[in-house]
Design brief:
This protein has about 300 residues and is an alpha+beta fold. It has helices at about 1-25, 30-40, 85-100, 185-205; strands spanning about 45-55, 55-60, 65-70, 75-80, 85, 105-115, 115-125, 130-140, 145-150, 155-160, 170-175, 180-185, 215-225, 230-235, 240, 250, 255, 265-270, 280-285, 295-299. The strands form three sheets. Strands 13, 14, 15, 16, 17, 18, 19 and 20 form an eight-stranded mixed beta sheet that branches. Strands 3-2-1-6-7-4-5 form a seven-stranded mixed beta sheet, covered by helices on one side. The two termini are about 60 Å apart.
């Protein structure tokens, strides 16, 4: 009987110990990277061909079928080379592309709300210019104007930037489109396709800089009078952010104010890199926030 009681006591102590260890691990600190990943978990990227735009809904044809993405007044649209545009501009571009037999693609970053998607940014990918390739032999040269004839007897005349190395009887490939391309044989076709790919990538270099970025780290100081919060990342990067009335501050899933932030809090902050205005400050729930003192700044 005594042995039975001893085993019960030992078992109870072991269960309590395991529960305590589990609680410690469950409440352990979450890294800034993990927190950032958690914030991005509710977002989804969608890439596809624009099928239609109707009633504030963009329908995209993707590799997995059609996807419907809603848009609202906060959705940002970008389309090279114009940069930031409106939904009406996008609709007009899609219609013009369709009239010419082309299709517009879009890269959408959307926020998931159950099964629904709400677009935050929509980047339009203009269709590549149509290029007609003509393979034949040079049958006529006049200055920089070259005439070629193919095996079917069809002819094509183009003006080249420089035709001094072109000779009668030479086999060439003419790429006719914006900025004609002419080189010998199939090498000309290869270079033409390479140039198209280069032009395609250059379009995205003209896109405007993003309107927001994020930093994950620890609050170094809080100035409640100046309404600023200084955050230091693990890499050593420091950002002093302005906290405005529309800055969203969240603590343990609940709305909070700058007075509730303090030095040492682990946060993920989203802000405008140009103005340094904080858009959102999320405090790690594993680091409880205490009300700030009446001083203007926390060291």
């Amino acid at each position: 009987m005594k042995h039975w009681k001893i085993f019960v006591i030992i078992g109870t102590v072991a269960l309590l110990a395991l529960g305590t260890v589990g609680l410690v691990f469950a409440r352990g600190p979450v890294s800034g990277v993990a927190r950032a990943a958690e914030l991005q978990a509710h977002r989804q990227g969608v890439t596809g061909v624009i099928v239609s735009i109707q009633d504030n809904v963009i329908t995209l044809e993707t590799g997995k079928g059609e996807v419907r993405v809603s848009v609202d007044q906060a959705t940002v649209y970008r389309m090279p080379p114009k940069g930031e545009v409106t939904l009406a501009d996008v609709q007009q571009a899609v219609q013009e592309a369709a009239a010419g037999g082309a299709k517009m693609r879009a890269i959408v970053v959307a926020e998931k709300n159950g099964d629904a998607l709400l677009a935050k940014t929509v980047a339009i990918v203009p269709p590549l210019p149509k290029v007609t390739h003509f393979v034949g032999k040079v049958t006529g040269i006049q200055g920089n104007t070259v005439t070629a004839t193919n095996a079917a007897g069809e002819t094509m005349t183009v003006t080249l930037p420089d035709a001094k190395n072109v000779k009668i009887g030479q086999e060439i490939v003419l790429g006719i489109g914006p900025g004609p391309v002419m080189k010998k044989g199939l090498e000309g076709l290869r270079l033409g396709i390479k140039q198209q790919a280069k032009d395609f990538l250059n379009r995205f270099k003209k896109l405007p800089a993003p309107k927001q970025t994020a930093i994950a780290g620890v609050i170094q100081s809080v100035d409640t009078q100046a309404k600023t919060v200084t955050v230091v990342a693990r890499t050593g990067k420091t950002a002093t952010l302005n906290v405005a009335a529309d800055t969203k501050i969240m603590v343990a899933g609940a709305s909070a104010t700058i007075d509730q932030l303090k030095a040492g809090d682990k946060v993920v902050a989203t802000y405008n890199p140009q103005s340094k205005n904080a858009l959102r400050i999320m405090v790690n729930s594993s680091a409880p926030v205490a009300p700030a003192t009446s001083q203007g700044a926390s060291a």
